[in-house]
Amino acid sequence: MEEQSVIHRSVLLSLVTWLTILSIVGCQSICPTRCLCYLIRMPRTIECSRQGMLVFPKNISDIVEHLDLSDNLLTEITDDINRLTELQYLNLAKNQLNFLPSNLEELKKLTRLDLSNNAITNVADIASISQLPTLTVLYISRNPLPNLKGLTSEVLQALDAGHCLITELGNQSLSGLPALTSLNLVGNPLKNIQTPVSESLRWLDMSDCILNYLYPDTFSQIPNLEELRLTNNPTLVYSTRHATLQHLKLKRLDVSRCNLDRPGLHGLPALTQARLSHNAIRLLPDRIFTRNRQLTHLYLNANSLERLNASTFQGLMKLQTLDLSANNLVEVHKQAFQNNINLKLVNLSYNSLHQFPDLAATFLATLDLSFNLINRLKANSLENLPMIVNLNLRDNQLQALPRGLQSTTLKVLNVQRNRLVELHNSSFSELPSLQKIDLSGNRLTEAMDPVIFRNNPDLAVIRLEDNPWRCDCTQLYVTFEFLTDPPVKTTGSSLICQSPANVSGYSWEVACFDAWNVDVYHSKDKTWGMVMVSLLILVVLCGSVVSIKHTMKIKRRVVEQRQQLEMAERERLRLLHRRITTDQRRCTYITISNQQRLEEEELEELDHPSEPRINPLELIGPPTYEEAVQMPRLVHSMDALNEISVDNSALRAMSSVDNLRIKKKRTRRPRKRTQSEDDLLRREERRQERIRRERNNSNSNIGEQPLNTNSRNPRTSLARRSRRHSAVDESIESGSSKDRPRPQTPNTKKKKRRQMSRNEHVTDDEDSDVQTFNSSRSVVIRELPREPRSGFRKSFIERET
Ligand SMILES: *[C@@H]1O[C@H](CO)[C@@H](O)[C@H](O)[C@H]1NC(C)=O
Ligand SMILES: *[C@@H]1O[C@H](CO)[C@@H](O)[C@H](O)[C@H]1NC(C)=O
Ligand SMILES: *[C@@H]1O[C@H](CO)[C@@H](O)[C@H](O)[C@H]1NC(C)=O
Ligand SMILES: *[C@@H]1O[C@H](CO)[C@@H](O)[C@H](O)[C@H]1NC(C)=O
Ligand SMILES: *[C@@H]1O[C@H](CO)[C@@H](O)[C@H](O)[C@H]1NC(C)=O
Ligand SMILES: *[C@@H]1O[C@H](CO)[C@@H](O)[C@H](O)[C@H]1NC(C)=O
Fold it and tell me: 413 to each of 382, 529, 548, how far by Cα in Å?
């Protein structure tokens, strides 16, 4: 089933295609050679114009609607045309036809027939048009037809018989055309018209004829005539002192370029538009238009009017447009338009007005006063024109614009090609609605200050070309910017310098390019510079603030650290003090003076806690526990140093347990102490001096072996040296790099050495800095195998093994 339908469909499709192709082929076969056939589109058209055809083509498709055979050489149309029953428009213009076939009955749809530019000499030869039942428009212009008498068509509405040889239009001429509404007889040698009769005619053009006189009743038999054109009948006169053309329904009359010496419109009461331009009207008698109450447009331009009295246009209540241009008006009465309450446009251009006409017109919007001789404008000139929008004063002789020309409605002011030399401050200040001003072609030299347009917010166009600008670049810049910055008010290229001579002929922009750009860049540079400088200052300020903050923080931290350190020191001192006092209790032979001194010092310290006077390094001095243990042995060696050590060692041995505990704690703070070293160095030295002195005293007091605190004592130094040597030997001997003391800077070594030499016997706190004392103590350590101590284990082990 489905297959069958598919086959069906394909067959149908192919059939349709074939049919289409066939029809197209058929059409083409019907399309005559040298013709273009558009038979698919509507209307179906065949164009055969300009093919040099001599005979009417035979096989034209009978479905054609528009057939164009214009501009050929046809002399005859055969009866074959009756085949074309669909024909609506037949163009046979520009051929050499002088007749139509006598039978056109079958062209039942033909509405437009163009027979213009043929050789038809008699309307009788085309009489068959009467058979065309729908013909509405017939062109028979440019045929040598002498008249239209005999042309008949019940339905024809428009007949163009222009540029024929029609010399007369009699009372029978249009009798065969009862439906005619428009008749064009332009360019015929019509001289006389004898009251043609047409009930239907509404539009008649007899321009470019040679009409001489129109009787008052000439158009009386064309009662429905609305528009009559009689332009360019150079000798035509239709109105005399006694009689004038009459028509009750004529609305539009154009009698331009005739020979009228007066308007002669009083017989035309329905007239709304009257063109009387280019006539010879010199006088407009008072109240001459009082009958033309319907008149809205009156063109009296290009006549010879010399003056307008107050009552000239009286009664033209509906007048809107009045063209009085190109007359010889020297004066327009102030009240000339006072009755024309609808007057919107008055054209007074191309007259000889020397003064601005102080017109009073309530609704006047456009006043054209161009091409006059007006040389003065007063500030109040527009005061009686409350609706004025467009004032054209171009090509007058104004030398200045009034200060404060007043109008709240004026939008366009044209003062092109006057003699303006300068613009005043307040020239435009009272024109708040101004949108466009044309100042071109004047004698402006100085760039106007944009301030003069301060009260013209809507000003969008300022034309300034053709002025002899003096290009003072500094002065021009502001103006140029004002004019050419968006919204652009004038084109920069229209501004041409005239002076100074070296820039004459150049545009402002070109002439002042260097000056302006330097200025611009300069200011830009300056602003840039300012920006950069301020940025830099900002950065510097920020940086300094941050760094100050940072240093303050660091300082605070240092102070804190120092305070911490001092606290620790004080704590340590207290402990030391306690220890010393306990020591004191046990050992009776410690010198009282020493103890006193110590106490004194500590008390001092406690009295002035903020200023720790005891150098922590002072406390390093005393021999270690090992030393203390070691010392008794050395007594037997009879060495002077050892003798001293005996005393100390005894003391130390007694407090060993306590000491050891404290020492362990203290070993954790060597670094802090070294930090404070530098700070306290000076004080320490001062102290040392005192201590030395005191100690010397005390030593001598108790009568014992002198304490070899003094480094100048040759024996002590000798002993120390030997000790140091042995330490070096020891380390070499041990051969252990691990056990070797950490390298010391010469400075610290020196310092420690010095301290050692001074404090050896005074302070029992040998402390922590193992490495520092390593060299001097290693001897002791070697000889003290049973006391384990970190950093010396190896040597212990060695000893033990
Ligand atoms: C068309 O005209 C040619 C001669 O120009 C003629 O031979 C032909 O038969 C005509 N065709 C039709 C369909 O009339
Ligand atoms: C037409 O004008 C002729 C004179 O030219 C006159 O004899 C005739 O009566 C007029 N006919 C009509 C209908 O006015
Ligand atoms: C205009 O009016 C004056 C008097 O105001 C008069 O002398 C003159 O003739 C009038 N002109 C016309 C054309 O009516
Ligand atoms: C006034 O008349 C002149 C010349 O007749 C014409 O060029 C101009 O456009 C007219 N002005 C107006 C506003 O119609
Ligand atoms: C413009 O007017 C101001 C006062 O509004 C006055 O000071 C200034 O001098 C005037 N400038 C010119 C060029 O008239
Ligand atoms: C024209 O001459 C003036 C000095 O008279 C000078 O300042 C100016 O730069 C010159 N302009 C040009 C474009 O050469």
Answer: 12, 46, 69
